[in-house]
């Protein structure tokens, strides 16, 4: 699905503050995979996600989706099938709006016809299905939710537009351990039950060692480790 071939990103090339963020990275992420990326500060993790989103153009090498080299003149095309959730729980949602309004806005994103009644039904059934306990609180302002609930809502919003790929950049970093576990269980269900490919960055080694079928380690812009793992099935509690 997503493929990098010998991809290098150099910020400020030729200048005093030149910085090579990714060095000849080659990788292939298959449809449906859940890939966890770890690495120290400055390793190039966020740059990798930015390339995927079309926010940063490689200096050399190829970035391909479904075997086609990406055209950076049309980055909006990427937005149509990529969802994202970041670290700050307030950036993935509109805190001043109700849960219902947030879901409606999210539904309008994406490449499909919008019909209010069907979207409302779909959003409610998604919330119910995921067991988040938010379906009865549709008139609550999103800003009043806990950090974990905000991130869960942000993830539901991200998948409402039916992305094929979900990018998660430290999406549990600001949560307490219990909330982080619940959000990770939701992440896993989104991958398995909704068949959405996930690329997740984390600094939390407990999470990295427990979630995702493939663990990749970046160091100074290079992939130094990339392996499939057999994860021991967890007993999943209600989210
Ligand atoms: N816009 C930019 N201009 C110049 N250098 C940059 C820019 N963005 C990132 N860098 C540099 O590129 C390198 C990789 O940065 P990146 O943000 O991808 O790392 P990271 O692994 O996500 O780090 P962190 O875990 O701290 O978020 C770093 O040395 C960083 O300083």
Automatic annotation (TrEMBL):
GO terms for cellular component: plasma membrane. It comes from the Bacteria. Residues 2-239 form the ABC transporter domain. GO terms for molecular function: ATP binding; ATP hydrolysis activity; transmembrane transporter activity. Pfam families: ABC_tran. The keyword ATP-binding applies. Keywords: ATP-binding, Nucleotide-binding. InterPro entries: AAA+_ATPase, ABC_transporter-like_ATP-bd, ABC_transpr_LolD-like, P-loop_NTPase. SMART domains: AAA. PANTHER family: ABC TRANSPORTER DOMAIN-CONTAINING PROTEIN (PTHR24220:SF692), IMPORT ATP-BINDING PROTEIN (PTHR24220). This is ABC-type uncharacterized transport system, ATPase component. It comes from Mesotoga prima MesG1.Ag.4.2.
């Amino acid at each position: 699905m997503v493929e990098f071939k010998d991809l290098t990103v150099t910020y400020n090339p030729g200048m005093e503050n030149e910085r090579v963020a990714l060095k000849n990275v080659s990788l292939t992420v298959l449809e449906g995979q859940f890939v966890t990326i770890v690495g120290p500060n400055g390793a190039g993790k966020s740059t990798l996600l930015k390339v995927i989103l079309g926010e940063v153009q490689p200096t050399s090498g190829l970035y391909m989706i479904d075997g086609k080299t990406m055209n950076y003149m049309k980055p909006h095309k990427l937005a149509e099938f990529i969802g994202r959730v970041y670290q700050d729980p307030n950036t993935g949602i509109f805190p001043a709006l109700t849960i219902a309004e947030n879901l409606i806005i999210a539904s309008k994103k994406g490449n499909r016809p919008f019909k209010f009644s069907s979207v409302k039904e779909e959003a409610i059934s998604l919330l119910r299905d995921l067991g988040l306990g938010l379906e009865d609180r549709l008139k609550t302002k999103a800003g009043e939710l806990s950090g974990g609930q905000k991130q869960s809502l942000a993830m539901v919003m991200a998948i409402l537009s039916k992305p094929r790929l979900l990018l998660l950049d430290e999406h549990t970093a600001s949560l307490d351990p219990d909330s982080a576990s619940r959000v990770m269980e939701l992440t896993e269900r989104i991958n398995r039950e909704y068949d959405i490919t996930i690329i997740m960055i984390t600094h939390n080694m407990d999470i990295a060692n427990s979630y995702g079928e493939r663990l990749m380690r970046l160091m100074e812009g290079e992939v130094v480790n990339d392996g499939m793992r057999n994860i021991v099935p967890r007993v999943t509690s209600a989210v």
